[in-house]
Design goal:
The chain has a domain of 91 residues. Helices cover 48% and strands 6% of the residues. It has 7 helices and 2 strands, in the order αββαααααα. Strands 1-2 form a two-stranded antiparallel sheet.
């Protein structure tokens, strides 16, 4: 058996180049001319893809995200405990809302925890407001979960607190 298409040598002849210049910079670019085997895009009704000029800023798909602090990571871990099953039962749009509100809640809790006097009631209220996003949640479950998570967060604060802080 022979495979004539595979064994055929490719056409290695260089194609003629077309010089163009951009009006913004006046820089010249050499673009290979289209061959006969490639259909003309304008004739087929397909728009030409836009090629950004050298003066236009290129927007990167990767955004610069600041690394999370250790305290924020620990608080997010406490907040997401025991909620994975509930989270995956939510519709996708509710999941996105729940995740965004959870990240916002965690960052607010970190700022509250950094203060000299911890405001437990505000932390509890933040967690309860976040959990209320879950549709059809039982009020008693919500209060219990918020209290448990608040206690765990306060335990994190006492773990990180220096032992010799009050000693002179």
């Amino acid at each position: 058996m022979a495979f004539p298409n595979i064994l055929k040598k490719p056409d290695l002849e260089p194609k003629p180049l077309e010089k163009i210049s951009t009006p913004e910079t006046g820089a010249a670019y050499e673009i290979p001319q289209t061959s006969e085997t490639v259909p003309n895009l304008a004739e087929s009704g397909v728009n030409k893809p836009e090629i950004p000029s050298p003066t236009q800023p290129v927007v990167s798909a990767i955004s610069a995200v600041a690394p999370k602090s250790a305290a924020l990571t620990k608080i997010e871990t406490v907040l997401e405990e025991d909620l994975d099953q509930i989270y995956f039962q939510l519709p996708p749009e509710k999941q996105a809302e729940f995740r965004a509100k959870g990240e916002e809640t965690a960052s607010k809790i970190v700022s509250l925890m950094s203060q000299a006097k911890i405001q437990v009631k505000k932390i509890l209220d933040l967690i309860m407001d976040w959990l209320k996003i879950i549709p059809g949640i039982n009020r008693f479950f919500l209060e219990q979960e918020a209290k448990i998570k608040t206690d765990k967060i306060l335990a994190l604060k006492s773990e990180t607190k220096p032992e010799n802080q009050n000693k002179i």
